[in-house]
Predict the structure.
Amino acid sequence: MEVTSACNLRCAMCLVAYRPPVNKITGAMPLSMLQGLVDELPELRELTLQGLGEPLLSPHLMQMVRYAKERGIRVGFNSNATLLTGRRSRELVEVGLDWLHTSLDGADRATFEGIRVGASFNEVLRNLSGLAAAKRAAGADRPQLRVVFVAMRRNVAQLPDLVALLAGIGVDDLRVQNLSHSFADTDPAGAYQEIRTYAEGEALWQGEDREAAATAFAAARAAAAKYGVALRLPSLDPPPADHAPRNRRDGGHPGCTWPWDAAYVTSTGQVQPCCMVMGDDRVSLGSLSRESFASIWNGPAYQQFRRALHGTRPPKVCEGCALYRGTF
């Protein structure tokens, strides 16, 4: 659930950077919307409180975490960690947040701040270290801390140094991913032109860029083994040209199981098939402001979306998705 669509950064690879700013009050998901969905789904197992915005900007975040935890639901979110103060870190440890993933796309100030525009590299490192310290002080094993690194042409060479840096501040889990969407399904001259152009210019698929990424990945593996950091690396193989998912197998595997396993809800209550869509105008399968989640989940729009994933051509919004195409 996108608990807020407001963000205090303008990250270069995020749609937020290419849209007008959103006020943190008007961009907040109402607490009642989350409570209503949780109440409707008594067998809900896991809840991720994030979307395009920064969750720590939500005025209801702690209430949302508590509400879900009281019902035995695993809860976590991604954060840019710029607002992760010492007080907030202690609160998150006390409430039993299950995981917190932080984006860190460089091993030095210039690279990181050139991507995460508006963030302070040193502040983010201090805040991450502070959360690790809060866990130690409380004798807690939660929240599980992970750093997420979006690999691009401009930063991939720094990956081995980042592994060593994280080990030094007490973070032992690093997930590297490629850009989440190519936006190849959009009009090249339309509203998504800028982010589409950015994605095309930063992908690691070709020639020297792929070779440089492979070298950085190998060095990162060695550093991870040295420092005891869990490291996940994505594929460097280019996506299939025919829009078919890389993992399609005999028997009609859809290539992505999101629409059967989970759902994504925007801050305004639009229900989308997944969090990879990036843009609430790209697809909507229903709205919680007008109908129940059950009626949306079992409704004709969802059913048609699932059928299309089993076909020879996916829904258009899936064509450039890194998860669907096996490159995430």
